[in-house]
Design goal:
It is built from three helices and four strands. The chain is α+β, with helices and mostly antiparallel strands. The protein starts with 5 loop residues before the first helix and ends with a strand. The C terminus is likely disordered.
Length: about 130
């Protein structure tokens, strides 16, 4: 059996992490999953042009899907930490870096790693 290279492994991981977050938010419908696939295709090209960016793919796919959902369906993911005020979304931090997390800038906390929204508590940890 042929092993997959770092690019394909990063793309498969990014797809799985973002899909896990979509499932946790109960928005993993067919048209939304298609948005993930579109992002993966675009990011494959992007990493082929800049191989050093392979570690950033998961965060970028998460941001791509978040942006696409805003245009088509509304804000996602909504912050599970803040119980008062207007509903607001989480942001991916770092915007371009390894180990991406969903962060609530209103409360100033890391809510969950990308791919772990289903297991996040309401407390979060201070954002750095």
């Amino acid at each position: 059996m042929e092993s997959i290279g770092p690019l394909e492994q990063a793309l498969h991981t990014a797809r799985a992490l973002v899909l896990a977050d979509l499932v946790a938010g109960e928005v993993a419908e067919a048209d939304v999953v298609s948005l993930v696939e579109e992002s993966v295709v675009q990011r494959r090209w992007w990493v082929e042009q800049w191989p050093e960016g392979v570690a950033y793919v998961a965060g970028l796919v998460a941001q791509d899907v978040q942006d696409a959902l805003l245009d088509r369906h509304g804000r996602w993911p909504l912050c599970p930490v803040c119980g008062t005020g207007d509903p607001h979304t989480l942001d991916v931090e770092p915007e371009l870096g390894p180990d991406p997390h969903w962060v609530c800038h209103e409360a100033g906390v890391k809510v969950a790693a990308v791919g772990s929204l289903g297991s996040c508590g309401a407390g979060g940890t201070p954002a750095s």
